[in-house]
Design goal:
Elements lengths: L1 E5 L4 H12 L3 E6 L14 E4 L7 H8 L3 E4 L6 H6 L1 H21 L4 E7 L22 H20 L3 E6 L1 E3 L11 H10 L5 E3 L5 E2 L1 E3 H11 L6 E5 L5 E2 H12 L6 E3 L14 H7 L7 H14 L1
Parallel strand pairs: 1-2, 1-4, 2-3, 4-5, 5-6, 6-11, 7-10, 8-13
Antiparallel strand pairs: 9-12
Helix pairs in contact: 1-7, 4-5, 6-8, 8-10
Bound molecules: nicotinamide-adenine-dinucleotide.
Nicotinamide-adenine-dinucleotide (NAD) binds next to α1, α4, β5 and β7.
């Protein structure tokens, strides 16, 4: 089975590529390398260095004829989306539509989409279910929500099967400091150098951190399971940014204090995902908790 992975040179995408390849499927990568890195992809896998909005994307589909598309390529910086909503929408919404058109034309059998908990917006301090109202607080969240609507409507009009995965805050090896879960990478990068990281707000805001290898597994399981369903992918756990920083400081054995700055626009106070649906229908459970995931992540940063 051939699996075309957009954004496969990125943080999460490169772990998806590894797992798809290890499972015996053939991964093919489409990535414009704007934030991704060629060295994250095993040299035996084909990489097309191309933008998902490019007219030449069609030639890749014509040549490769993928069975499944896993779509991770995106502008992932929430703050950038607020500064430049046109560019965000162009890559995240128009890019997704362009890809869906190619999938329809070349008879792709399954479309798997990386969405985000950013579609929910501000909720009380509860675990959020997939049925919760969607009220994004940023243009990035709107771009993910809109893409979900296009995917569902493409399915109704053209019967393109899909699975949508709404990730909590993903962390782990190969993460860049930008993007949604970038706080773990920023904290490790700073503390290991003995520098103070910045915490926006009072640090009491909480997040549900999920390890990147568990997210890759959710994508792999979606190849055969969860047809036309939406799943939360998180750990249903709650960690404040202050707690996270203390854990990272202790693991790194560095006693550096954080600097506090005012909260940023578009930042959510609490975010925690209910994952019962993914467990029941997708057959997915996280196998890493924050402690075990941070230990593997630290080993990666220390090896750099
Ligand atoms: N990291 C998180 O915590 C998190 C949370 C929720 C959702 N997501 C989603 O997961 C996906 C992967 O995110 P990530 O954290 O690995 O970010 P990333 O920046 O590491 O990966 C994105 C990849 O897409 C590529 N790319 C970007 N725009 C492109 C374009 N127009 N054409 C072709 N390639 C393009 C980049 O070069 C990069 O390799 C994204 O869709 C993101 O919105 C991430």
């Amino acid at each position: 089975m051939k699996v075309l992975i957009t954004g496969g040179a990125g943080f999460i995408g490169s772990h998806v590529v590894d797992l798809v390849g290890q499972t015996g499927y053939e991964p093919v990568v489409v990535d414009n390398l704007s934030t991704g890195k060629r060295e994250f992809i095993h040299p035996s896998y084909r990489l097309y260095e191309i933008d998902i909005t490019s007219p030449f994307l069609k030639d890749v589909f014509k040549k490769e004829k993928p069975d499944v598309v896993i779509h991770l390529a995106a502008q992932v910086d929430v703050a950038f989306s607020i500064k430049d909503p046109v560019s965000d929408a162009s890559q995240n919404i128009l890019g997704t539509i362009h890809l869906l058109n190619c999938c329809q034309e070349f008879n792709v059998k399954k479309f798997i989409f990386s969405s985000s908990c950013a579609v929910y917006g501000e909720k009380d301090d509860v675990s959020i279910m997939e049925t919760s109202p969607l009220q994004p607080l940023s243009y990035y969240g709107i771009s993910k929500y809109t893409s979900e609507l296009y995917i569902q409507t493409f399915n109704k009009l053209h019967q393109l099967p899909f699975t949508i995965l709404r990730y909590a805050n993903v962390y782990g090896p190969r993460q860049t400091p930008k993007g949604e879960g970038g706080v773990v990478s920023i904290f490790f990068n700073k503390t290991l150098k003995g520098e103070s990281p910045i915490i926006f707000g009072d640090g009491g805001q909480t997040r549900d951190f999920v390890y990147v290898k568990d997210v890759a597994l959710a994508n792999l399981l979606s190849i055969h399971n969860g047809k036309n369903e939406i799943f939360n992918i998180g750990c249903n756990s709650k960690t404040s940014i202050n707690e996270l920083y203390n854990k990272i400081k202790n693991l790194s054995s560095k006693d550096v204090s954080a600097i506090y700055m005012p909260a940023r626009d578009g930042d959510i106070r609490h975010s925690r995902l209910d994952i019962n649906k993914a467990s029941t229908i997708l057959g997915w459970q996280p196998s890493f908790n924050l402690e075990t995931g941070l230990v593997e992540t630290l080993a990666y940063y220390q090896s750099k």
